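Bumping with the actual sequence this time:
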Amino acid sequence: MAVEHRGKALKYLSSALASPNPPTRTELDLIVATTYALTFQASYMTDGLIDFAFMVRGCSIVTRYLVEQYQSSEMFKLLMPNDIYAHVWPLLSAEPFHSPEMVDACIETLEGIQPLLLQQDDTPRYLTYNAILSTYQAMKISAQQAFLAFTFIYSSWEHMTDREFIEFLDPGDPVSSLLLIHFVTATIMMRRIFEALRLDQVNTPRDALANHHWGIHRYESLPAKFRGLVEWQYKFITADKAFIESGQWAAR
């Protein structure tokens, strides 16, 4: 049922944006709201990685279209990056929030993928690679800097062409899967930041378990010769998943 609703919504969004008569600002606000709702829905689905990535990219495209047409939104006050950062900055710590050893392990394993990107002369994937690397590096500085860097992972997807993005999400592409496993790892490591930004909502770590399923599935789908490049990430993801499922987080 959820897949059917998403399909209908996506068809509506596509037809609205392709119409020779541009949508009104109110209509675009509703399109943005729908896109964000579908993004959040996908984030809770254990098989929702591709849907989530598509919808994140859709959010960026629709938001940019709204701003180009009307400069501002009637519904959303935190639409542009500068507004978001100004709101978020005071809510986040200016201190590092992960151990240097953990972050260094992430950086070292990510850099192990770089030769594969060089072999393909792959600029689109390099954008995501650099954004993930910057996110890891920023974690050693502060939660504020980590949040800022993390948003550029999403931006890297917007800058791909439609064809490049579809190829990037292909489960049969091992290099993309390696990068997406790092994306999942970074997302899990950012959980405390996301929780700090949603203090008015009732959330538990269990709400993020879909992320773990995404990473585990991508790892298990990798050809054996590539798995060693993200073995650390796989162990981290499975250990965090087991910790959440055990309920030990509730005792903290």
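The tokens above came from a reply further down the thread. The CA atoms of residues 130 and 142 lie 18 Å apart.
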